[in-house]
């Protein structure tokens, strides 16, 4: 479960926001120390609650996202591993209200260096691209490229992972058929993920992140992210 929205701190009023419950199921085809291959299917629902410039309710939207995602983890040496995932999405319902393109691909892949039993370092390349398979749609296309770095600290059943996301290139065009020009952006994030493994198949995560977004057009944005997750491995 995830929720995101804007807040005007000077008046402590809330703008438009959305709720985002989701469910995922992963099947592991191969699971050894040398090689892991998996496949995840997922469903996510976006429940939008819009407000106008005066803070009054201004309608709603209910959009769905369907996902399929292979993942891999390959042992290169005792200290180095290569891992990643590739997700393919299809969006449906109320796209004209939310402004989403109907299709998207997303991937993150890179290398992990195990320093010792406690510390490790991971650096990944990230790409996300939104596009329309339906040529009649005039919804948002975009692309994002980032470097993502993680520093997991493992302490028994607890893992603390400070991380950062550094923007390489980002552009968007929410009216791409009528206006071919693209707007540039610069997104960067700092975050901390707390994970606890109960050693019975159940685990939980807590996450907080701060993100600053600079835009070629309009005001720059600042976001606070918070999340909680529960996972169970059969």
Automatic annotation (TrEMBL):
Keywords: Signal. InterPro entries: Autotransporte_beta_dom_sf (IPR036709), Bact_OM_Channel_sf (IPR053713), Outer_membrane_porin_G (IPR018981). This is Outer membrane protein G. It holds the Pfam family Porin_OmpG. The keyword Iron does not apply. The keyword Signal applies. Transmembrane segments: none annotated.
């Amino acid at each position: 479960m995830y929720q995101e929205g804007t807040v005007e701190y000077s008046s402590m009023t809330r703008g438009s926001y959305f709720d985002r419950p989701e469910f995922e199921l992963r099947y592991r085809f191969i699971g050894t120390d040398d090689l892991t291959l998996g496949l995840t299917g997922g469903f996510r629902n976006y429940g939008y609650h819009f407000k106008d410039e005066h803070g009054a309710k201004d309608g709603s939207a209910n959009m769905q996202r369907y996902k399929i995602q292979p993942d891999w983890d390959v042992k290169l040496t005792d200290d180095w591993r290569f891992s990643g995932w590739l997700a393919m999405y299809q969006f449906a319902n109320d796209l004209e209200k939310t402004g989403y393109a109907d299709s998207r691909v997303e991937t993150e892949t890179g290398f992990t260096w195990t320093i010792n039993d406690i510390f490790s370092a991971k650096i990944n390349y990230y790409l996300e691209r939104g596009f329309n398979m339906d040529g009649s749609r005039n919804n948002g296309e975009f692309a994002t490229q980032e470097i993502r770095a993680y520093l997991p600290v493992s302490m028994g059943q607890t893992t603390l992972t400070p991380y950062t996301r550094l923007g390489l290139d980002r552009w968007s065009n929410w009216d791409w058929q009528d206006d071919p020009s693209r707007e540039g952006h610069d997104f960067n994030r700092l975050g901390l993920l707390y994970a606890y493994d109960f050693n019975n198949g159940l685990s939980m995560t807590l996450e907080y992140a701060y993100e600053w977004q600079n835009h070629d057009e309009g005001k720059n944005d600042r976001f606070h992210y918070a999340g909680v997750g529960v996972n169970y491995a059969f």
